[in-house]
Design brief:
There is one protein chain. About 30% of the residues are buried. Strands 1, 2, 3, 4, 5, 6, 7 and 8 form an eight-stranded mixed beta sheet that branches. The termini are close together. This protein is about 20% helix and about 40% strand. Strand 5 and strand 6 form a beta hairpin. The radius of gyration is 15 Å and the shape is elongated. The protein has a single domain, classed as STM4215-like (2-Layer Sandwich), CATH 3.30.2000. It is an alpha+beta fold.
Length: about 140
């Protein structure tokens, strides 16, 4: 399982949405997904560059990975998108992600790296409110 998959699994476990759902609040990750054209709102999660891995000396494998994820709430109306992203922003990040095994990844840390902010409307006119998340796992 990738770190992105483990992160979205934890979002689902926290009750923020259901991965790949076409009804209710969905969570969609990566760039090769078909986003719903209907519904009240949903999350998209993309990998962003983050920081270099730790433990790569002597050409060995990375021991600790430090990616970032951009979590975006999309909805037809701004208050819905804003409330969705605030529900993510308000979770107990320490309890959810600090020193926690999630699938085959051991998360050392995950927390917002920015305040929620708006992006331009998406291709079909949905509001987008996003937050960047810093993550450390092995």
């Amino acid at each position: 399982m990738t770190g992105l998959s483990a992160f979205t699994q934890k979002m689902e476990e926290l009750g923020l949405g259901i991965r790949g759902a076409s009804v209710g609040v969905g969570i969609f990750s990566g760039t090769e997904v078909d986003l719903p054209g209907h519904g009240e709102g949903f999350f998209t999660v993309l990998e962003t560059p983050g920081m270099p891995p730790i433990g790569t000396s002597n050409e060995g494998p990375a021991i600790i990975r430090r990616p970032s994820f951009q979590v975006t709430a999309r909805a037809k109306r701004y208050p819905v998108a804003r409330n969705l992203i605030e529900s993510l922003y308000a979770i107990d990040w320490k309890a959810a992600f600090v020193n926690r095994q999630i699938s085959d990844r051991f998360f050392l840390y995950a927390a917002p790296a920015s305040e929620p902010f708006t992006l331009p409307l998406d291709g079909i006119g949905r509001v987008r409110v996003t937050v960047n998340i810093d993550v450390t796992y092995r």
